Q: What sequence folds into this?
């Protein structure tokens, strides 16, 4: 195989999110989030796990920054816990919360690591949930206010608005397996519209207040395919593509919801009535960067049911298919206007893997990352403007409804001692970063 060299300026990064690693949920004036509430209800999260301690990152910031430097990371994507900064989601700012993220950004800069900040990675202030959460249009305004606070407080060039609106809509509101635990399609798509509105409002605020900085959404995209050719699955595949991908990409890039998907939604949700004049102009505020999160494709049988064609990971929703990342990236190039793309998440879970010597040999993760990066390289060769890649995740962490059993980190966390141990994938990644080429 010819050598697969990446551009010198390619940003090799790792990603995390606040609720999944910080812990310290009741310290220094942090308000309550919907994930604190959701995780406290027995049965919602495996083993009754919560983010109360997580990887204790809030108390181990210096150590974790040094860890990033030791791996040679060029980029770090983190999220800001809204309730740390605005405990009630509106009004008064909690200085201690702001200070934590200032220390983080300063620490990254001192170590030459490029920061990428996510404004919302699912930990909505509980007070806003009590006022209707994302079903309440006002939450988008509150989000724009919070975004303005963060834009002024942190010297960060690159911002992401909403992490995976699709997962909020599907897991949080259609299936009820994530906070806020709603199971109602009608309400789900109302929430969707307000999430996109929040994205657009915050993007406008940034453009007006800080020209030169960049912002975009972080979308999980799932290429959809017929599991077998000539089975008549094409209509189902297109419908699924609407729900998974076009429902998010089209309004942001083209200023219109996909008509077929909107018609389907209209049969089950009052969402179309909630679209006011001017909303789509806000939602389609030009983006400067697109965060792409890729984990898995969806193969459908003739009835439109999902089937697996390839091996799955520890979590069975994750069917391993690196070619899907190439297909996703090239599809963006051919179907949508060109913007710089950053892979803001890609990774794989595995059960605890500590060997007898205390080391962690996660060969399957190395293969997964290598194969997906080869797909990124192929997309670069095809002219897709991919600027960087952030592996999910830097650390083992609170994997939402799966709790601590599913470990996505390239660095192992022993939750009893909070000891960090780079896995073989972290050492492999460090070498890749220094050579710039896939061996
Ligand atoms: C993402 N799916 O969520 C999130 O952004 C992370 O916080 C999370 O830890 C990571 O992926 C791993 O799950 C997803 O069902 C959740 O396809 C579900 C899916 C995809 C991504």
A:
């Amino acid at each position: 195989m010819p050598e697969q060299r990446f551009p010198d300026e390619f940003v090799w990064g790792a990603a995390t999110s606040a609720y999944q690693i910080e812990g310290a949920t009741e310290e220094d004036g942090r308000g309550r989030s919907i994930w604190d509430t959701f995780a406290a209800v027995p049965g919602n999260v495996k083993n009754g796990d919560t983010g109360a301690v997580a990887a204790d990152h809030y108390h181990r910031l210096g150590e974790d920054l040094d860890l990033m430097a030791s791996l040679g990371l060029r980029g770090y994507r983190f999220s800001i816990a809204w309730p740390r900064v605005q405990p009630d989601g509106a009004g008064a700012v909690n200085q201690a919360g702001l200070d934590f993220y200032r220390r983080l950004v300063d620490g990254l800069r001192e170590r030459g690591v490029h920061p990428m900040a996510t404004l919302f990675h699912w930990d909505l202030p509980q007070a806003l949930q009590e006022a209707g959460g994302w079903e309440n249009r006002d939450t988008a305004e509150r989000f724009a206010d919070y975004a303005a606070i963060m834009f002024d407080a942190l010297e960060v060039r690159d911002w992401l608005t909403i992490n995976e609106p699709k997962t909020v809509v599907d897991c949080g509101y259609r299936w009820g397996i994530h906070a806020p635990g709603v199971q109602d399609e009608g309400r789900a798509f109302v929430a969707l519209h307000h999430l996109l509105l929040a994205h657009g409002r915050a993007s406008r605020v940034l453009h007006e207040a800080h020209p030169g900085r960049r912002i975009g959404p972080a979308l999980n995209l799932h290429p959809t395919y017929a599991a077998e050719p000539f089975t008549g699955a094409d209509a189902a595949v297109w419908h699924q593509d609407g729900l998974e991908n076009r429902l998010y990409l089209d309004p942001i890039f083209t200023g219109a919801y996909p008509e077929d998907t909107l018609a389907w939604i209209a049969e089950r949700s009052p969402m179309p009535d909630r679209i006011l004049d001017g909303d789509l102009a806000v939602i389609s505020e030009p983006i400067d960067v697109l965060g792409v999160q890729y984990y898995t494709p969806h193969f459908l049988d003739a009835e439109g049911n999902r089937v697996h064609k390839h091996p799955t990971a520890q979590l069975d929703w994750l069917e391993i298919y690196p070619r899907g990342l190439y297909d996703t990236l090239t599809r963006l190039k051919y179907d949508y206007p060109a913007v710089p793309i950053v892979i803001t998440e890609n990774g794989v879970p595995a059960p605890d893997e500590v060997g007898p010597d205390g080391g962690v040999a996660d060969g399957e993760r190395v293969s997964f990352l290598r194969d997906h990066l080869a797909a990124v390289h192929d997309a670069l060769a095809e002219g897709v403007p991919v600027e960087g890649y952030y592996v999910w995740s830097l650390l083992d962490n609170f994997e939402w409804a799966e709790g601590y059993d599913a470990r996505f980190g390239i660095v192992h966390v022993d939750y009893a001692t909070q000891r960090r141990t780079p896995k073989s994938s972290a050492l492999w990644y460090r070498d890749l970063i220094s050579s710039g080429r896939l061996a």
